[in-house]
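BUG: 3D viewer hangs when loading the predicted structure for this chain

Environment: internal workstation, default settings.
Expected: structure renders.
Actual: progress bar stalls at 90%.

Input used:
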Amino acid sequence: RVSMYYDQEKQKVRVEKIIVHVIIGLFVLVLVFGSFGIIKAGEVGVRTTLGAVSGTNEPGIYFKVPFIQKMHKISIRTLTVNFDKAGDIGDEKDTHDNLFGASKDLQEVAIGIVVNYHIDSKKVSDIFVKYRTINNFENNVIKPIIRELVKSTSASYTAEELVTKRTEFSDKVNKTDI
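Structure tokens produced before the viewer hung:
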């Protein structure tokens, strides 16, 4: 009986050692694989340490302190804002997604516009601090500027001129630097 009890205790100790080794092994794996990552081309990494921005990283491999630092990847590729999503439906044009404004002769006009933009890699850190995501930045900065720019530019043309001088109107809107 003593021998059987001794074997059970010995086996219990072995199981406990195996569990401890597995836990340590998992912790080491998390440390090793949580210490680095890759930032792809067209992205900039914003490093945060305990929630505060502590720098940026260019594309390539990066190293960080697990559990203390995080890397947030922000796209600097060309992005598109589309205010002309509807398109033609038979003889009618659905203008639900277009911008609306008034012409110089006070006619209501629906203007479809597509805007391409990209974020300057030097300003990624500031944008991250203020908006956290590209969607927040687009919704709070880019789209309101586009709306105001199109409305204010359309107000300097009559409804007829918006049709006959479409290229001129488009060039004025496109040349504005945001």
